[in-house]
Amino acid sequence: MEIIAFILGVLVIVLGLGLSIGLHEIGHLVPAKRFGVRVGQYMIGMGPTVWSRRVGETEYGIKWLPIGGYISMAGMYPRSASDDAPRSGLFATLVQDARAANDESLDGTDDSRAFFSLPTWKRVIIMLGGPAMNLILAIVMFSILATGIGITQSTTTVASVSECVLPAGTTQTECRADDPASPAAAAGLEPGDTILSVDGTPVESFEEASAIVRAHPGDEIAVVVERDGAEHTLRLTPVLAENSYLDADGERVVGEVGFAGFSPTSERVRQPIWSGPQTALENTQAVVGIVAQLPARLWDTAVDLFTGQERDPNGPISVIGVGRIAGEVAATEAPILDRVSVMIALLGSINIALFVFNLIPLLPLDGGHVAVALWDALKRGWARLFRRPPPKPTDATRLVPLTLVVVVLLVGMGALLFAADIFNPVRLGG
């Protein structure tokens, strides 16, 4: 059963990734057609074609590898000048091949239906349509997770009470007769009690109650609980102990704090409607941070791969890594709703990654095409300012050598992450 669940988890992510890619390309396709650009192909995936069908002037299809997609628009760049003479050399040949392919996309097409002929704002809308679709998908998924399903949170109801305080620095896991009773047990706290206030302060969450306990080692404090419909006041004296906890910034720290020895129950709490967009924003900020430090993080990943060290769980991973995590989550013995929640969160994170990565202002990414369009607008604005003739659209085929370098780097990054995710994968809970 675990193997079947693992495979199902991987399939869910593969299908979800394919859907995300397909909708990303629809984000480009719809405004392109709306603005009259001739679109020759709409393809999901890369590699050999599995299925395709022509509808009107556009061929729609699916390819074998769900690692990308594209639409082919007529005239991404201006037509080649008739007097361009062939040149020798690798980079010159690459530029000429790119121009030939671009000219072929314009064959039989009126330049008014070419992408390069559109006003800047239309070109920007077309190229941002894909990333915007991924952002919308992420917001929908995080909203379903937070507002529809709910987020698991600790409550003020006690789930269990430790019988004793285990000696520090030992591997002992069970209480012995001579071990001192835990402060919670000594105070009479029982499973099922709902904590109403601690040290005179009303509490609405376990985190609030725990923070007060941590701040009062050795001090006797009053704990008011509700038990069987009646309120009871207990006297609790936390002991000084080394413990880990989350600080005000949400970071886990270890230090000497007051310890009582009880744990809370957990329940799913539906969040406000704005929680989905807020989570998407927080994920976007995190991914932007990863992209900004990408060279260093890739170096760390390579070092971990060759030395066998444990990888940073917050570092970059590939589709293989995401699929593996999804499979492991699906194969756990957690409740179905918990596993579904993790799958939704993974898909939301994938769409945030697609959103951010595609905005990098380098060709062949969407952000690169936006940068070219904005450069064209800047040139036209400069010409109008000085009353000069309108300049020709930017011939971005000249950037093909740089684009090739970017592609090679992307392929190299993918190969590194694939290898790392196969031979040194990120461990759940690691």
The helix content is 40-55%
Beta strands, count: 10
- Radius of gyration using CA atoms only: 29 Å
Distance between the termini: 24 Å
Give the strand order of the largest sheet, numbering strands 1, 2, ... along the chain.
5-4-6-7
Low-confidence stretches: none
Structural class: alpha+beta
Shape: elongated
**Biggest β-sheet strands, sense, barrel:** 4 strands, antiparallel
The total of helices stands at 11
How is this structure best described in words?
The chain has helices spanning 2-34, 90-105, 120-149, 183-187, 206-214, 275-292, 294-307, 319-331, 336-358, 366-385, 400-423, and strands spanning 39-55, 58-73, 151-161, 194-198, 201-202, 221-227, 230-236, 239-246, 252-259, 262-269. The protein is an alpha+beta fold and 430 residues long. It has a four-stranded antiparallel β-sheet with strand order 5-4-6-7. Strand 8 and strand 9 form a beta hairpin. It is elongated and about 90 Å long. The mean pLDDT is 87.
